[in-house]
Design goal:
The protein has 5 helices and 10 strands, in the order H-H-H-E-E-E-E-H-H-E-E-E-E-E-E. By secondary structure, the chain is α+β, with helices and mostly antiparallel strands.
Length: 197
């Protein structure tokens, strides 16, 4: 978190006027209603907070994906949404449940518009490998937009797992249930309400 804090402070300092432009009693100016200096400070703070605390990825839809050798075929692979995407984390489980089946997970992800795929997960992990965004250790995020089939016929989805220090990309058999630490991630524009952790 200290790196994030340093980035936040640095971006605010860069946006402030030069020292000779700062009026006496800066704190009072920032507290007292609208002013040009207040507007600059507010804009710099909002931009810095947004950049640090809201994950943003870029997906083109043309990424070359490398699948593990054990995969027989790709059943589904979400290409979109593409572009620069601001993401939010939402709860997978609702109504104080402890787990849901994989079929329920796939349905919930689709209805919440949180069915991002492998390419989205790879973009996320490339940019935020060591950023946990305040999520508890053990949090995992199914990437239900990609479904693959093993030679034996078992269906799997990729998922991201937060180990406390870094994210890992793993695969999960769709016969398993999904537990309380599971989250979904979706583009913020798909949101119908506030994000949760």
């Amino acid at each position: 978190m200290s790196r994030q804090f340093n980035e936040l402070v640095a971006s605010i300092v860069r946006a402030l006027p030069a020292p000779d432009e700062i009026v006496p009693h800066l704190a009072q100016v920032l507290i007292d209603g609208p002013s040009e200096l207040r507007a600059k400070f507010d804009a710099a703070l909002a931009r810095a907070v947004r950049e640090i605390f809201i994950p943003v990825i870029t997906v083109t839809g043309t990424e070359e994906l490398q699948f593990p050798d054990w995969i027989d075929r790709v059943e589904k692979d979400a290409v979109g949404p593409v572009g620069t995407l601001e993401l939010e984390f939402i709860e997978l489980l609702e109504n104080s449940r402890d787990s849901i089946s994989s079929d329920e997970m796939l349905s919930r992800a689709a209805s919440a518009r949180a069915d991002l795929g492998l390419r989205h997960g790879l973009a996320f992990i490339a940019k935020y490998r060591n950023e946990g965004f305040g999520l508890p250790t053990g949090t995992y995020i199914p990437l239900s937009g990609t479904v693959v089939v093993h030679a034996a016929g078992d269906r799997h989805v990729p998922y991201l797992s937060w180990g406390g220090r870094s994210w890992l990309l793993l695969w999960r058999w769709l016969a398993h249930d999904w537990l309380r630490l599971a989250r979904l991630v979706r583009p913020r524009s798909a949101s119908s309400g506030p994000s949760v952790k």
